[in-house]
Amino acid sequence: MLLRGFAATVAMDGWPGRPEVRINLRLTVAHPGPGFPDDIAAVMSYEDIVEDLRRVCARESLPSPDHLAERTAGLCLAHPEVLTAEVEVELPAIGAQGDQGTAVGAAVTRVQRSKS
Question: pLDDT tens for residues 84-97?
């Protein structure tokens, strides 16, 4: 499952105001198995992940892009269908005069721990 270009404003320590963050996800999800019904409810929907991302980005303040990437990977892996989560978080870098420079961010890959 791919989710590219999710955008939201965040309060990030060290950044003025609420800059826009971009999040990209690549999730490996479990297949429901042979003979699963031809029904959208039988497969994982990205909408739950999007709602989780909106809640995280609405928080009062986040300490860093690394923290947001880790938090995002954790919320993805909280869904039992998600086996791996590759997360990229990107924020605009703010120059000394308040102008936008190149982007900064973080990327993490996390794997679902065995439930045995």
Answer: 999 999 988 765 55
